[in-house]
């Protein structure tokens, strides 16, 4: 179990807010992002539960990170541009889904009222994903995306298995209809060509924004998937996908050929009103923490993959150093996923980092069953 004793960079990081804000401050400063504005936004996202002291074990095992940590940071690289994302799950007062719904509702209202997020499309699907009767699982996760200019963008991740009254497939189809993308369902079905048992819908994502470019994302977990075959399906359904990159990317990051069984691949299809029924992009997320002996090994693999794609591996390593609070060789829980998609003809890679508050050797999650 990872010790929560403060290190030299987090002198008094004993609460979720203290720890999250200390890490974000270093990331924002390094990435050239407004530190005061960014940390003010994150502090609100961690309120009020962020004032709690970090316990030795999670009271609510969050869906955000493999070890149950409720805070994740990531960095996205496209050309010379770097964006930082913070993902949180509002911790409930008691470890139940109804309490998690109340916590998520409070944060959503805060982002709308205090930061100008738009909740129109979320309101249209609210009852589907936050049911009153016998809800199960997580309620909602919130993300803020920070760039060097402009205000942060917000999005939410919703649970397609929010209750047992409706299947994840039926709930996702209904949600697409309600946000005006009913005809996009054909692309979802075509993409899940092996069936929704093997290509399982796991999240429904919404930008808290309005306009024709606001995104709707359907996320899948692909059991026993061959990266090259998934790459071909992405090419068939998505407008901007460039086939041929994913298999090499997966091989370099995991050291494995063929199917990924220990921890399955994840992907999403992204839709917008301007894009119509065709996904404007497809993104693959390669799980990292079970395919290496340490974060040091993962760092070397990610650096090599980014260099091969013409992306700034040195900036990735600098940001990683601002997240890590132990030697990279002493665990494998910091890196969770690395994602790849092609936009505007160029590759975009993002790396996702657990705050690793509870375990530096997290076990597999989301096994088929």
Describe the protein in words:
The chain is an alpha+beta fold and 369 residues long. The protein is 32% helix and 21% strand. The protein is built from 10 helices and 10 strands. The chain has a 10-stranded antiparallel β-barrel, surrounded by 9 helices.
Task: Summarize this entry quickly.
This protein is α+β, with helices and mostly antiparallel strands and about 375 residues long. About 30% of the residues lie in helices and about 20% in strands.
Q: Which helices and strands appear, and what pairs or packs with what?
A:
Elements: H1 16-31, H2 35-45, E1 71-78, E2 81-88, H3 97-115, H4 120-129, E3 140-146, E4 153-158, H5 168-178, H6 185-191, E5 199-207, E6 215-222, H7 227-237, H8 246-254, E7 265-272, E8 281-287, H9 295-308, H10 313-323, E9 335-343, E10 346-354
Antiparallel strand pairs: 1-2, 1-10, 2-3, 3-4, 4-5, 5-6, 6-7, 7-8, 8-9, 9-10
Helix pairs in contact: 1-2, 1-10, 4-5, 8-9, 9-10
Features:
369 residues; alpha+beta; 10 helices; 10 strands; disordered N terminus
